[in-house]
Amino acid sequence: MDDDIRTALDQMPKKNRSKLEPHEDVIRELRRKGRTYEEIAKFCSERFDLKVAPSTIHAFVRVRARRHQRLRIELPDPNLLGTVSMGSDRPTTEGVSEVKKKTEAFKRRPLIEQARKPQFEYDEDQPLQLVRKDEAAQR
């Protein structure tokens, strides 16, 4: 490549592909602190005068998490999802083992229950008739 072209390319500033790129560190820190995408969108609107949808922030975070394996800390730990205790900003692992125990017990239950006696019998050559419980027990 020609030296003049190389110099021109080196002098060109890097173009941001997303309006959120300059605020990537702030978004990452807010995600680490457990903030929702809606809260981050509101924060960007108030602090940076940047109107952005929560879904845009979600896509921004997901793309970077896939591109850079080291940035997986942006996403909440899947083992802690749904275990945040009310009134606390920090996730707890209380109840996780309890849920796992219940799940394992549910998986171990028998799949086929005992066959029940039919409540009525159908014979297409006979008209339908109501049968009392005591008569059905005799059959």
Roughly how many Å is the radius of gyration? 31 Å
H-E string: HHHHHH
Helix content range: 40-55%
Largest sheet: none
Count of distinct strands? 0
Inertia-based shape: elongated
- Structural class of the secondary structure composition? mainly alpha
> Poorly predicted ranges (pLDDT <50, ≥5 residues)?
83-88
Give the termini separation: 95 Å
Which range does the strand content fall in?
Answer: under 5%
Mean pLDDT: 77
Descriptive account of the structure:
The protein is built from six helices and no strands. With 139 residues, it is mainly alpha-helical. It has a domain of 55 residues. α3 packs across α4. The longest helix is centred in the middle third of the chain and has 14 residues.
List the helices and strands and how they pair.
Blueprint: H1 3-11, H2 24-32, H3 37-48, H4 54-67, H5 96-108, H6 133-138
Helix pairs in contact: 3-4
